[in-house]
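#structure-requests
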Amino acid sequence: MASVSPPPTLLDRAKGCLLGGAIGDSLGAPVEFHTLGVIKAKYGENGIQEFDRAYGMLGGITDDTQMTLFTAEGLIRAKVRLALRGVCHPPSVIAFSYQRWLHTQGESCDRNAIDSDSLGWLVGIDALHHRRAPGNTCLSALRVWNQDLAKNDSKGCGSVMRSAPFGFCEATWELAWESAAITHGHIEAKASAAIFAETIRLLVAGQPLEAALIQACSLDRDETRSARLVRRAIELASGDVDSESAIRELGEGWVADEALGIAAYCALKGGSDFEKVVRLAVNHDGDSDSTGAIAGNLVGAQYGVGVIPTRWLVQIELRDVIEQLATDLVTELPLAPRDGATDAQKQAEKAFLDRYPGG
């Protein structure tokens, strides 16, 4: 009798989600601004299949993964603040993390985000201080941010491509929605982020992808195009329409609802075959790195890091940083007991709070 593999652990899923997103992002980076015809002319009829050089390296990440890492940092720091102070407004903490990301892009940011007591470790990683085609909406909104919601009407995919970490926290829908609103004012940008994050949460809880997508869309009370495109993606994935035509129907992915719809279709079509999922997700006319990232997040959260090919894990930029953030996102805060703490407990707490100051 064949043995049944145990389901992935929470940590496996967290690493799979964040690393899977980074790998999909990296695979799509060299072809982000190319049509499918141009992609095929360069890489062959099947399109890009392996990492190619982007930003001077193989396996380089883009702004999609950069912002996802700062989302995770913000969530961890919010947990720290709540534990130490007993009160916290997580979207505000996350907004300051996005200000630190803005700083890494060579831009002026809110000085409170980068004072000596607020820095933490992530903003100090030199490799993050590179512009990797950051989205105009994210940049423009964060430049004028004054602890308020975005005043624009953008539904660019910059809201959804960074939102996977919300699937590993409580109040997933609300947090993803409110944090998307820091940079994007359009309802589709917020709805897509919330549907995506809620889908990740349900996958982590053990639901299959189609059921998770359906349940996440059922929370949408605004009958958004985001939910309609996800439902259409489910129909297309179970039908006999060829993948190129299906993705073309769903859009190009520059806007949030289309990026989510394309990624959902590719994740459904590829199942546990990580390579198939992300290759489908990046070989089209549109925003290849963002659709690749979102699809990679989905399959990694569902099946865990074990489905990701070792050769891609070895090559991906900042693997150790991504794994550290995934670990810190889902493990209990190592806060020492107030009475009778050992030296080891005190040292563990200090190391963690040095990485994620939140008090």
